[in-house]
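Researcher: Re-running this chain for the archive, since the previous output was lost when a drive failed. Same request as before.
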Amino acid sequence: MLVGKYADHLPLHRQSQIFARSGIDIHRSTLADWVGVAGFHLGPVVNRPAHMAMHDHPALGALPIIGRIVNIRHPSPGGDDTLLRGLTRGGPVRPFDNVHASGYRGLYDMAAPDSSRFLLATGQSGHPLSPHYRDQNMLWRDGCYLPMQVDEIRPDHGGVHVLTLAPAR
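Model: Regenerated structure tokens:
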């Protein structure tokens, strides 16, 4: 009945008619109740994130005990064909682990540099003992960005060099 409703796009009143032709009298309100009960019981399975973003430390991540401390892992909504794209591992063991995604995300507004945004997947520091080691990973997971402070590097605020790009003529 759930396959008929969700995979085959058969409304419950049509399913009720199909059952009636086979001599089984089930009203669509009963079918609707069953859909609600099934939804309640399947909710924890459906809402469990299938993708786990894995930010493993390149040097220490493979060590048995230390790896648990330095590797950053969290649920990730991104899969191979989603907006928050991440390459999944595939294979028989933990096939939906997100093992490759953008580590740095940046949005640059050249007309208004102070409006630019960025985010690092794990945090500002690559040192596991730093308080900034994993301080951005949940923001990364949620698709958030931090404002980019560019005042001190803008040429009109004391910057050292100006690069002007002009089209070839």
